[in-house]
## 1
Amino acid sequence: MANVLAVLEQRGGALKQVSHEVVTAARTVADASGGGVDALVLGPSGIDVSGVGAYGADRVIVVEGDDLRLYQPEAYAAATVAQTQSGDYAAVLMSATAMGKDLAPRVAGRLDCPLAADVTELEWSDGIVVSRPWYSGKAIAKLEIAAAPCVVSVRPNVVNPIERAHDGAAEKAPPADVEVRARTVEIKEPEKARLDVTEAPVVVGGGRGLKEAENFALLEELADALGTAAVGASRAVVDAGWRSHAEQVGQTGKTVSPQLYIAVGISGAIQHLAGMRTSKVIVAINKDGDAPIFKVADYGIVGDLFEVVPRLTQEIKNLRGG
Amino acid sequence: MKIAVCIKRVPDTETRIRIGADGKSIDQSGVKFVLNPYDEIAIEEALQLKEKSGDGEVVAIALGTEESQETIRTALAMGADRGILLQTDVAPVNPVTVAKALAAELDGAGYDLILFGKVSVDDGSQAVGTVVSELLGLPSVSAIGGLETADGKGTAEREIEGGVEVVEFSLPAVLTAEKGLNEPRYPALRGIMMAKKKPLEVKPVEVSDEGITVVELALPAERPEGRIVGEGPDAVPALIEALRTEAKVL
Ligand SMILES: Cc1cc2nc3c(=O)[nH]c(=O)nc-3n(C[C@H](O)[C@H](O)[C@H](O)COP(=O)(O)OP(=O)(O)OC[C@H]3O[C@@H](n4cnc5c(N)ncnc54)[C@H](O)[C@@H]3O)c2cc1C
Ligand SMILES: Nc1ncnc2c1ncn2[C@@H]1O[C@H](COP(=O)(O)O)[C@@H](O)[C@H]1O
């Protein structure tokens, strides 16, 4: 029997979408092993957790504090460890977001237990079995975890949230007392907030084929027409200073798994493919019919992006408008 | 400032991965190994901090096989003062195991800062540095893209989804380096010559990696064969149709 602790994530007092993914993954393991799911929420008071039961949490443990509004590494780690030790959990699950990638190793280090980071599959078969990318996704390792508890972070966007109603009754737990030596003082947000490439269901990636920074406006317009879309970039254009590193997709950038990835003027170097090949649907627009990007693309258009992209934007606007 | 930088030998990112005969590891024949790209950034940051403070020492530490000596020499050629190889043939699957071996070496050695790369491009756990900070009981900030230090305190910026977190911390501390923190220097010829004479201490270590085992290593499923829907802007309607009716993503 494996009880699972799902650590959820909030921003500005609202639960993030990835929280449902984590609860779903936790429920799947718990159901296969006859265990239960507890969800842990850390943040300011007043977070609405009423929807968490719908995704399969038996209990929702809420740790509130004004100084938990932002992710505070020490306080979050202490509270997660305290909750883990108070119960009989086989696994602590969280999403491999910026927060999860920092919190998971802290919890594993404090508990001295195995950590499997950024997994793309998770199941129960007499123990936790995960798959995770190695060599930036150029190989997939299947791992068996024999120890309980263990800590697992799950790549965002790979679990489809499933509604499986459970009780989800909320109860409060006190924040842990910690000595603070590293404090998150603020989050600086850009003026025009666009979705992050790791979170967006659609990513429009641009490469050197755009010729200059200003031409990314074409991709911004396409992303706007698509609605919930982010703009990504190849390393070539990040190195050229056209786009910020936050947007780089690839082995030394971000790994994305959106529903739809549209590669525009990107050749498809091995390091770029490593970051986007797990996208559900890939579209490539490139004037070179032999570009390697077409080998991973589901749909391709061979042509000049300066003609194809404006037309695509227009057709999508027509579709959305009509 | 006394600064440690933990570095790892990894396959070059150009490498085409082939699975080895055991089905659990890669076939290393013909694979070129390099210093993990993120660790170059950590070394660069350490060198700049040392240069700014006017004195101090930068120590490069790797856990790995004998071949990791080459990786340490690269760090020395960039400008690190000395190296330590914690030598083992075990390549742990659990990042906590790696962290424990490194923490045992780092503990009590009086470092003001301990730097790591954000992530190793082979296992990609993005964990070892942060686990080390927990094992040593030190504050840490991971994946930093900006850093300022003064008077035993520091401020680091780390990029998160749709924003940048600003974190204040006290020294000694552990930091892991993200791209954008600096532009790593290339070792100059003089540096490469000097690196040969710099001290590199080899310490055999016992490493036991428990609780997590590789069942199988496989190449990712090939993506199903795609198709070119057409040429030029006139192909756009056919693309939209395919995305709506076949792929159902629009
Ligand atoms: C250690 C290391 C790490 C790396 N990490 C990454 C990484 O994380 N992410 C990454 O992306 N790269 C990474 N790279 C770089 C990678 O090897 C490639 O250099 C890079 O991806 C190329 O970017 P690109 O496709 O934009 O440019 P190019 O390869 O120059 O391709 C431009 C493409 O645009 C097309 N094009 C040109 N004009 C037009 C037009 N008018 N209409 C349509 N198409 C047009 C061309 O046919 C070409 O295919 C890494 C490299 C190294 C060594
Ligand atoms: N075997 C190792 N020896 C020294 N440092 C390592 C080793 N493995 C990982 N690291 C450090 O930890 C960072 C993160 O690695 P990882 O957690 O594997 O992604 C790397 O960038 C290195 O700085």
## 2
Amino acid sequence: MRIFLTAFCVIALSMTAIAQDGADTNATIDQISEPYVLGIGLQVGIASGGIATENAEGRKVNPDFWFLPTYGAVVYAPFSAGSKIGGRLDVGVNTTGTRTRPYEFYGGKSNWEGYFIERYTMFCIAPSINFAGLNVGVGFNFPMKAERWDPESSNPHHVIDQELLKSMAMDFRIGGMINVWSTKMGKLMVDISAKYYFSGLYNDNSYIYGTESDNVGIRLSDWETSKILNLTPASAHIGIAYLFNLGF
Amino acid sequence: MKTLNLFVGIAIAAMLLVSCEEGPTSADPGQEMDILYDSGILEGLKFTKSADLIYSGDGLRITAIPCLSDTLTSSGSHFYAQQKASFNQEPVFTIKFKGGVPTATGSYTWDEADVSLGGFAFTATFTSGVEVNNPDNGVTYYPVSGTTVITRLDKDGNGNITGIGGYFNGKLRSIWPANFTPSGSQPFPPGFDPQSPSLAGDNLTAQSGVFYSRSPSNVRPSTSGN
């Protein structure tokens, strides 16, 4: 996995550099018409919230909030010179998560007050289409790290076995890019995005908290015939992106 | 600009490389030993498990098995499932330590089980690790690789060990696949060499095993761990 990710970064970097060489060479040719401006830069998510959208019987969830949910490179390519519609490609690291209340009396508490946090970090390649600021697309997510921990416990975080996770989870995403500062060099955008991991994050029958439970965490007697739910979180984040203008 | 992109690419690659972790490690936070009923006719009743094991594997859904009783011996600790709470039963899992139950908390690495011909059947033995007798399919799995971490060690006034607690994660395997039936044309399963036998059966992953032996037995401490 690490070799794959490293190779991908090197290839992406090389392609960006090659594109710039082309841009330098052709800069004087299209001076009469409006130049085609490709945007390449970085995006960083500042804050995020996420929650599982479906629960097994006997379990509940709450939203979880965290910082630095995403970071990576972003490319924006208008469909034509001056067009307000274009394609966007995000490549980087995404996180999603939830607070899981595994049973009513978890943590020695009552009324569903106890919980632990689940956090999933993924390498993501997300192509999307931007309609004058409104962004719609899909994300292809490759697991990097998955953790569970009780914030009230000093125990080390439980790192979840990657063999339980889908080798590629997919999300549907919708969001917006709001231009807040534009110069000749580039644009600073406020980046808002909401995602729904419709494929689920786990392989079939592999999410332990997708099993039914009684109010103290014991599996129900009819467990053998029950279906294990997948974890299908939804999350949203707000961040910033800076796109350097590359004119052709 | 090229320098900037080079910087960005290297930074991203570095961040990606740093944050990959395969797992499983440590204990799942959902595996509580002490459970307190807080309502209904059981209000105030404290229910304490001896262990809880989450496993997955070939042909197995992910499963959590609570264990309600245990036995501590000089070579390790046995943990028994709720549905088999009687004498003369097989433990759901057995933890062994090289040289006997250790005298200090810490991390203890598993050794891969050895397979040998004993009588008319192949058997597996191991010195350090965890053996799982899966009550759902009846298959016994032996250690391949993993770690047991002792976080709690109780002693009586004589220095004898009365309880151990901690967690483990690891990979296990059965001797032969559960669905393999020997025949004249194929007396052994694929990958199994009778001249140099090794584990060649179904895989099982101990995603998280949490334990705290509370049996009234106590054992003399060993002088060496691993």
